[in-house]
């Protein structure tokens, strides 16, 4: 009997201890946005038609007012909600933010309560010093014409920018924190981040000067021991790299994910419970097995705030582990979501400063909209228009005498105009700026015919095996590529004005300064000689649109076989 009383006493003691400590599990909601690009206002987004999934419906999605409303609802339902960024919050932004050096976007994210953001490649668009200003605040910008025009003072981001794999090139020391541990209710949730290691290939050299980008997996895994020592209850990776899926964004636990993120996910430390991703602008909600063989969530929302990534996790704070996780992509339907009053005021202020420029009608198109959607051969209707605009700007002898123009597809940021219907067929300066927001400088270079072919061959397996970056080409330039041929031998029948390109002859070619420096993996273009800088790309685009009623050229310039 004595032993029984001892056991009963021990049980009562443990029960009393549990009552004092309280329950050990906590429900945490993590909501993330990726590739926001300063889109303070909603834009068109296509969603599956619930009545017939073979069809889609167009809704106005995104915008900080609706995002704020959705966050408020989530926080009301679960106070243990944290809001995070998965890179590219700024850069390549529409005029409402870009004309004000993206400071309205930083202020909006502060107001929305963002806790942490992993840097994306576009956070480096204006250079590391400007990224540091975004973090710390102040008006000492490398573009004084735009800085501190939204507010007389700019206080910077109240959330940290993180990345485990960005180092100072000289010292080898971290340029940014690797992680941030956020107290969410009773749980410590660690967010560890990395930006794609190939960032230097997709950003102008000045943007990443002095920085080194290491392998994503190696860098994140190296940070895990320190995170564990600090007692994190859950670890979520924020990785600004992604993939694509054959399933729609609302299909849960898909198994069709492909692209660079798959290898990253397969090799990240098993302590990482979920991976929130970005960069590829594709919504998906998939499972990928980790190194322990167990499936874990890899999720991404669509770009521009159209979708918010959401993780609902149950965390055991005594065992320091996630016991359950449910992932979903939330459509930010601007017509249905409640509006955040503070965000409405912010948007109104930004529009008051930018609308006089943004709303100026600059042209009337021959069609309602010219799209950037690529055909199977890699060309887009808008790509042809932009290439033609750049050739027109650089063809005069005093502007470089260009005879060919190449435009990188990643630099075409939106359809023209973004939203339809557009019965008037009019486009504004804001529409044009949204398409070409970088302010790149047109650069005329001399290339041989052989170097041009070399550049065209670099379109394939770019940025990774099985992926292509097809350059948009100007009127009069044609070629054929054969998908069945091996890399380096895909391009043939290159012609200019109907005449075969001479490998030994020299040609004047206009590209933006990003491509001229070998961006997007086009290192052959960096071999160009006799460089001559010219107009800004947006100015050339506007002039071309203004000069006549533009209707996209339907004639195929690039022929694809197989």
TrEMBL record:
Residues covered by the 5'-Nucleotidase C-terminal domain: 361-526
Q: Give the protein family.
A: Belongs to the 5'-nucleotidase family.
Sequence ranges assigned to domain Calcineurin-like phosphoesterase in this UniProt record: 29-282
Q: Specify the signal sequence span.
A: 1-21
UniProt KW keywords: Hydrolase, Nucleotide-binding, Signal
InterPro entries, per the entry: 5'-Nucleotdase_C, 5'-Nucleotdase_C_sf, 5_nucleotidase/apyrase, Calcineurin-like_PHP, Metallo-depent_PP-like
**Name of the protein in its database record:** Bifunctional metallophosphatase/5'-nucleotidase
State the organism of origin.
Deinococcus aquaticus
Q: Which Pfam families match?
A: 5_nucleotid_C (PF02872), Metallophos (PF00149)
Looking up PANTHER family in the UniProt record yields:
5'-NUCLEOTIDASE (PTHR11575:SF24), 5'-NUCLEOTIDASE-RELATED (PTHR11575)
């Amino acid at each position: 009997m004595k032993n029984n009383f001892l056991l009963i006493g021990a049980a009562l003691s443990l029960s009393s201890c549990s009552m004092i400590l309280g329950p050990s599990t906590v429900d945490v909601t993590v909501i993330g946005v990726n590739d926001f690009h300063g889109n303070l206002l909603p834009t068109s987004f296509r969603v599956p038609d619930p009545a017939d999934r073979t069809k889609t419906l167009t809704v106005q999605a995104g915008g900080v007012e609706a995002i704020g409303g959705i966050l408020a609802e989530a926080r009301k339902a679960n106070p243990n909600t944290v809001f995070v960024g998965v890179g590219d919050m700024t850069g390549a932004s529409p005029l409402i933010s870009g004309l004000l050096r993206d400071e309205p976007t930083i202020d909006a994210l502060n107001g929305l309560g963002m806790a942490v953001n992993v840097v994306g490649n576009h956070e480096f668009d204006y250079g590391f010093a400007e990224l540091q200003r975004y973090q710390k605040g102040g008006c000492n910008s490398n573009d004084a014409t735009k800085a501190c025009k939204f507010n007389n003072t700019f206080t910077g981001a109240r959330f940290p920018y993180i990345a485990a794999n960005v180092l100072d090139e000289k010292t080898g020391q971290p340029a940014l924190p690797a992680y941030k541990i956020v107290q969410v209710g009773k749980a410590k949730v660690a967010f560890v981040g990395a930006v794609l290691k190939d960032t230097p290939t997709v950003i102008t050299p000045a943007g990443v000067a002095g920085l080194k980008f290491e392998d994503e997996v190696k860098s994140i895994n190296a940070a895990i021991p320190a995170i564990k020592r600090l007692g994190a209850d859950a670890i979520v990776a924020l990785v600004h790299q992604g993939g694509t899926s054959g399933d729609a964004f609302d299909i849960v636990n898909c198994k069709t994910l492909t692209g660079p993120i798959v290898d990253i996910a397969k090799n990240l430390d098993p302590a990482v419970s979920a991976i929130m991703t970005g960069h590829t602008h594709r919504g998906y909600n998939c499972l990928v097995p980790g190194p322990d063989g167990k499936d874990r969530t890899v999720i991404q929302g669509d770009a521009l705030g159209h979708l918010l990534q959401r993780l609902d996790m149950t965390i055991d704070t005594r065992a320091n582990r996630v016991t359950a996780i449910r992932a979903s992509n939330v459509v930010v339907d601007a017509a249905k979501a409640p509006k955040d009053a503070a965000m409405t005021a912010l948007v109104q202020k930004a529009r008051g400063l930018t609308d006089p420029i943004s709303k100026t009608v600059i042209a009337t198109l021959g069609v309602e909209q010219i799209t950037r959607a690529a055909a199977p051969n890699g060309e887009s209707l808008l790509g042809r228009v932009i290439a033609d605009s750049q050739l027109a700007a650089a063809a005069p002898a005093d502007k470089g005498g260009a005879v060919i123009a190449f435009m990188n597809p990643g630099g075409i940021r939106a359809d023209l105009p973004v939203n339809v219907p557009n019965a008037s067929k009019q486009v504004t300066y804001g529409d044009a700026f949204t398409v070409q927001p970088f302010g790149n400088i047109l650069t005329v270079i001399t290339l041989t015919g052989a170097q041009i072919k070399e550049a065209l061959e670099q379109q394939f397996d770019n940025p990774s095996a099985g992926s292509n970056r097809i350059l948009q080409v100007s009127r009069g330039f044609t070629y054929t590529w054969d998908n069945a041929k091996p890399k380096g031998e895909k391009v043939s029948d290159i012609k200019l004005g109907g005449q075969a390109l001479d490998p030994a002859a020299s040609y004047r070619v206009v590209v933006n300064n990003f491509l001229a420096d070998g961006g997007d993996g086009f290192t052959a273009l960096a071999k160009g000689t006799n460089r001559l800088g010219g107009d800004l790309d947006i100015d050339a685009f506007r002039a071309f649109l203004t000069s006549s009623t533009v209707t996209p050229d339907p004639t195929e310039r690039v022929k694809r076989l197989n």
